[in-house]
Every structure is written in structure tokens, then in C-alpha cells.
């Protein structure tokens, strides 16, 4: 049996072609990229903890918080970050965030180069983005890119240790690493 795959040239083509299908993919620089669908327990715990902390700390009339299965359109395609914060006001049938203000990726051995390389370029190019956060899944260590008052993103700040907090200036919110990494050695 021959299965016909539609021609995918744009982010819109990608979103229509793969809506509702099994598996996890991104569309990056004109190519469909298969992603890891099985994650470690630490990865799952961090995703949940970060989502809960953001949802409990942000105004639900201004922001929507979600994880993994909702897209963020970048200048070069469509990404599916581990956690995102979007401005409220989108349509319930949207397949991508309309004003992403925060995205986070949790490191895995297979994603490290992308998370610190091309994803930094893709996410920080979004005009609405305030913060990009990368989290180690093995220890309380995070890297935060934040939009400065001049509108530009500088070098990442590395924050290490259970006693530290990640300050998200754009939201007026601090996330204690002890809360994020609870139950992770």
C-alpha cells in the first residue's frame, strides 16, 4: 500500500498535514524533524513543576500556560517547547501560540545542541518573547535568556543550586529551584 504524504513547504502546510497524527515532530528550516516522544521521569516532573509554578504565579486573564503539545511558530518554522506561556486571546482552534512570552526546554542528551543553539536563535527572534529557559533534568541548574530593557537578548544567566531562584523580570515572578527540583536528586 502506498501512502501519499502531502507536500510540505510552509509552517501552515506542516500544521495541517500532521494535525491529530501520532508522534512528535517540528518543522525547522523547511524540514520535518522527528522528536523524542519518551522522556525520563525527571523530565516529566520538571515539566509538571514548571507548568504548575507558572500557572499559579501568573494572571490567568493575561496568560495561558501549557506544555509540549502546542506549537510556537518561529521565523524558521514550528517548535513544540516543553513548557510555554502565551498571551490570552487566541482562538480555541489555534494550533500555535499567538503571542508566546515564555518558552522552556528541558535538556536531554539528544536535545542539548539544539536547545543551546538553533532554538536560542529561533525563540529569541520572537518579538513577543520575554524569557527562554533551559533546565538540566539531573540537577538544579538552569540557563535563562531574558529580553533586556533595550529589547535585546543578552548572554544567558546560569543559575545553580537548590537555594537559588529564577527571576522572570518580565512577569515579576521568581521560581525557586527548590520547588522546581523537588524530588530530583
From TrEMBL:
Q: Is Nuclease one of the keywords UniProt gives this record? A: yes
Highest taxon of source: Bacteria
What InterPro entries would the database entry show? Nuclease_put_TT1808, Restrct_endonuc-II-like, Uma2
Keyword terms of this UniProt record: Endonuclease, Hydrolase, Nuclease
One of its Pfam families is Uma2
Q: Which GO terms describe its molecular function?
A: endonuclease activity
Q: Which SUPFAM superfamilies match?
A: Restriction endonuclease-like
Task: Indicate the segments forming the Putative restriction endonuclease domain, all copies.
Answer: 12-176
Q: What is this protein called?
A: Uma2 family endonuclease
- Per the UniProt record, the source organism is Aureimonas flava
Q: What is the lineage of its organism?
A: Bacteria, Pseudomonadati, Pseudomonadota, Alphaproteobacteria, Hyphomicrobiales
Amino acid at each position: 500500500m502506498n501512502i501519499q504524504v502531502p507536500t510540505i513547504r510552509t509552517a501552515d502546510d506542516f500544521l495541517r498535514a500532521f494535525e491529530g497524527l501520532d508522534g512528535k515532530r517540528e518543522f525547522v528550516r523547511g524540514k520535518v524533524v522527528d522528536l523524542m516522544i519518551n522522556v525520563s521521569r525527571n523530565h516529566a516532573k520538571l515539566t509538571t513543576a514548571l507548568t504548575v509554578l507558572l500557572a499559579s504565579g501568573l494572571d490567568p486573564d493575561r496568560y495561558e500556560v501549557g506544555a509540549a503539545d502546542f506549537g510556537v511558530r518561529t521565523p524558521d518554522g514550528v517548535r513544540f517547547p516543553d513548557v510555554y506561556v502565551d498571551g490570552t486571546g487566541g482562538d480555541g482552534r489555534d494550533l500555535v501560540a499567538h503571542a508566546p512570552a515564555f518558552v522552556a526546554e528541558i535538556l536531554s542528551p539528544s536535545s542539548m545542541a539544539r536547545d543551546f543553539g538553533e532554538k536560542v536563535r529561533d525563540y529569541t527572534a520572537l518579538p513577543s518573547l520575554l524569557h527562554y529557559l533551559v533546565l538540566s533534568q539531573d540537577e538544579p541548574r538552569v540557563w535563562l535568556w531574558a529580553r533586556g530593557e533595550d529589547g535585546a537578548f543578552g548572554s544567558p544567566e546560569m543559575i545553580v543550586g537548590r537555594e537559588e531562584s529564577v527571576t522572570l523580570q518580565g512577569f515579576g515572578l521568581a521560581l525557586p529551584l527548590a520547588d522546581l527540583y523537588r524530588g530530583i536528586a
